[in-house]
Amino acid sequence: xxxxxxxxxxxxxxxxxxPPARPPRVPVFNLPPALFFSxxxxxVIYAVQALVLTDDAVSWLLFTFGFVPARYVIPxxxxxxxxxxxxxxxxxxxGSVQHIVFNAFWLMAFGxxxxxxxxxxxxxxxxxxxxxxxxxxxAILNWGDVSLLIGASGVISGLMGAACRFAFPAxxxxxxxxxxxxxxSIIDALKSRTVVIFMLLWLVGNALIAVGIxxxxxxxxxxxxxxxxxxxxxxxxxxxxxxQAPRPPAEPTVTEKDMLQS
Length: 262
Description:
This protein is mainly α. It has helices spanning 33-51, 55-65, 82-89, 97-141, 153-163, 186-191, 193-210, 225-238, 254-258.
């Protein structure tokens, strides 16, 4: 009988050591495109205003696109058509570097989850209507005043109000990515301790502004706290008109939880 012999098993050659995979780079500002272009638009407008235009041109820009409550007590035949677009265009103008930097910070913080949730087109409409709501309350409380209102703070306040409806989930629900949370009803939002605390802090901040104690910036520069409130109320109460996400099914009651079915 012929026997076949085999060579002893060779020790496996050590494989080449592979360098550890580099983790994917995470951008510092992971902003939705619509929000990124909104910020770029605000910055470009202010840069042109501050660096390119003459003083007379800046005055024309602010008068033509800024919001002035007095326009609504003057007959249309005695003025231009600015009263039709200024309730929105004022939100694209800013008065100083500090003004636009402060607004840009809050716009990134609260605009990003709202844009991711409702999309670009609805975000555009939300910007338009929240700006108009802010200007409307400002005009009502300052009827006939000749002061000039500029800045995106009213829109940002609207985004804050909208975020209260989904970014802070009810305590009994697990935390998820902000824009994927279920939308809370107005009642549920007002029952959330997180939402209530946030709203109280926001109201205290605006109350301080109303009595002349700004949180940041120059105390000599008047801040339109009433426009902030107009935007916040709009965003909080009317966000469901822009939100396409379905409401989650209602949780079973205690009786339903304890019921057994065969």
